[in-house]
Amino acid sequence: MEKLSLPKRRKFYVAFFFLLLLLVGSSFYFFDRTYGQEAAQFNLTYGDDSKQTLDLYSPDSNFNQKRPVIIYVHGGSWIAGNKSNVAEKPSFFTKDGYVFVSVNYRLYPKATYQQMAADVASAVKWIHDHANQYQIDLDNINLMGHSAGGHLVMLIGTNPTYLDNIGLSLKMVHSIVNLDGPIDINRLVQGNRGYQPVFGRDKNAWIEASPITYVGNKNLPPIFHVSRGGKSPEAFMKKAAAAGNIVDSFETKTLTHREVTKLLGGSSSSIEAQNMTRAVMEFLKRTRER
C-alpha cells in the first residue's frame, strides 16, 4: 500500500473529519425528527383529488394508549396555503400527548367554499375511520383552523349539514379552536369586496356561509375563539352563550393575523403569544377532562 505524504495525509484527515461531522449531524437530525419530537407521515390521501391529503404527526411513545387528536386546517383566503404551514405546532402538541393532523383541501377557483368545507369534513371522516390504526381517541376529536381554515372548521362544527352528509354527527366533535378566522361572512364581504369571487354577490349566500348563523344551535361543541376583537366576535359570543353553548375567547392586542398561528405553541419570547398559547391549552385541558 502506498504511503501517504504529509500533505496528502492532511487532506485525508480533513476529508474524514468532515465526513464524520456529516454522519453525526445526520444521525442527530434523524433522531430529532423520528424520536425526539414526533413520528410523521406525509401526504396521506383522504380523497381522489391531489389536494385531498393530510400530514399526521404522532407522539413517539406509549403507542398502546389512545390519544386525543387535533385536526388543523390552514389559512390562505380560500385561494392559497398549504398543510406544511404549521410552524412549531406538531412538536408542541405531540409533546403534550396529541396526535396532530394538518389538512390540505381544494381551493378557489377549483372549489367553492362549500366543497372546501366538505373536504375538511371528509378529512375528519378519514381520521374517524382510521382511529384505531393511529391510536386516536374517538371521544376526543378536536378541530383547529387559522383564518380561512378557522372559518371552515367553524362552519362544519356549527352547521350539522357537512358532517351529516358523510354519516357523522356534530356530537363526535369534542371542541373547536378558531384562530382569527372570519365568523360573519356577510360583514367580511361587505368590508372587502375582494372576497366576492369566493362567496358570490348574494347576501343570503353570505349569511349561509357564516358560522355566526348557526352558533345559536343548541348542544354545539365547546368553542374557543382567538381574534383581534370587534363587533363580530362579541355578537358571536353572546349568541353562543344565549343558546347554552360553551364558548371562550382570547383577544389579541399586538399579534398580527399571521402571528396568531405562527406563534401558537412556539418558542417566541412574546408575552402575548405565550398568554395566547396558555389560554388555548387551558381550554383544551378543560374540554379534555369533561
TrEMBL record:
It comes from the Bacteria. One of its GO terms (molecular function) is hydrolase activity. The chain crosses the membrane at residues 12-31. Residues 54-224 form the BD-FAE-like domain. Keywords: Hydrolase, Membrane, Transmembrane, Transmembrane helix. InterPro entries: AB_hydrolase_fold, BD-FAE-like_dom, GDXG_lipolytic_enzyme. The keyword Transmembrane helix applies. The keyword Transmembrane applies. This is BD-FAE-like domain-containing protein. The lineage of its organism: Bacteria, Bacillati, Bacillota, Bacilli, Bacillales.
